[in-house]
Amino acid sequence: MQEKKECTKCGFESEENILKFSMPLCLVCATFSPKTPEKLEAYLSEKVNQESLNSFRAYAKLRGFPQKQGMVEKASNGNVMSRAPFGYNIENKKLIPAINSNEVREIFEEFLKEKISLRKLSQKHNLSVNGLKKVLRNFTYIGKVRFNKQIHNGNHEPIISTTLFNHVQNKLERLGIKKN
Ligand SMILES: [Zn+2]
After folding, report:
1. Average per-residue pLDDT in the chain?
2. Of the candidates 68, 66, 90, which has an alpha carbon nearest to the alpha carbon of residue 80?
3. Does 179 fall in a domain?
4. Ligand 1 centre from 152 Cα, in Å?
5. Strands 18-20 and 23-25: what pairing?
6. What is the pLDDT of residues 3-27, one digit of tens each?
7. Is the pLDDT of residue 65 over 90?
8. For the chain: N or C, fewer Cβ within 10 A?
9. Do 52 and 97 fall into the same domain?
């Protein structure tokens, strides 16, 4: 049988408490704990009442909170969750601009400056119309990542400027081009 460990911050006893820098922490306290031992020490010196955390505790267990938190951090670091978007490669779990990253910039510029239909532009670049719309709306190209319906700063190199991206978003909206 596993030993119940008392959370160093709130005192909650559970077999599920995890060790962080050899300090046992409950799911809730672990989720919000800092990443360096120095900061952790300060964090742990501030005690909280475990009863006050109970509503969070039920939620954390239900949602697998620590894993989710980890995924947000990964997404924010620009770590790739599935496939690299058009114009990027994945190297060592990071997004790196690919040889065709220039083509992404061309697509944005052509869409903005030229009177060309989405169909023609997509054919020109060997994409489907939906694929093209995904490219034109993809925050990855300005160095951001979307995760859990939120936009986070990524760790990867942007391919296009925020200004160009915003102009394209405005034009998409002006033309009433819906998301797929
Ligand atoms: Zn705790």
Report:
1. 83
2. 90
3. no
4. 27
5. antiparallel
6. 678 999 999 998 878 888 788 888 8
7. no
8. N
9. no
Q: What is the CATH number of the domain that holds 129?
A: 3.90.1750.20
Number of domains the chain contains: 2
CA of 31 from ligand 1 middle (Å) equals 9
pTM: 0.58
Q: Give burial (CB, 10 Å; 0-12/13-18/19+) of 71.
A: middle
Are 153 and 144 in contact, with CB atoms under 8 Å apart?
yes
- pLDDT for res 2: 55
Near ion ligand 1, which residues have CB within 5 Å? Answer: 7, 9-10, 12, 26, 29
CA of 34 to the centre of ligand 1 (A): 13
Q: Look at residues 85, 62, 60 and name the one whose alpha carbon lies nearest to residue 146.
A: 85
59 & 121 share domain: no
| DSSP H or E stretch at residue 29 | helix 27-31
Residue 77 lies in a domain: no
The predicted structure's pLDDT at residue 58: 78
Distance of CA 47 from the midpoint of ligand 1 (Å): 9
Report if residue 78 sits inside a domain: no
117 CA distance to ligand 1 middle (Å):
57
Residue 17's domain comprises 5-63
Give 56 Cα–ligand 1 centroid separation in angstroms.
10
How many angstroms does the Cα of residue 17 sit away from the middle of ligand 1? Answer: 8
User: How close is the Cα of 154 to the center of ligand 1, in Å?
Assistant: 30
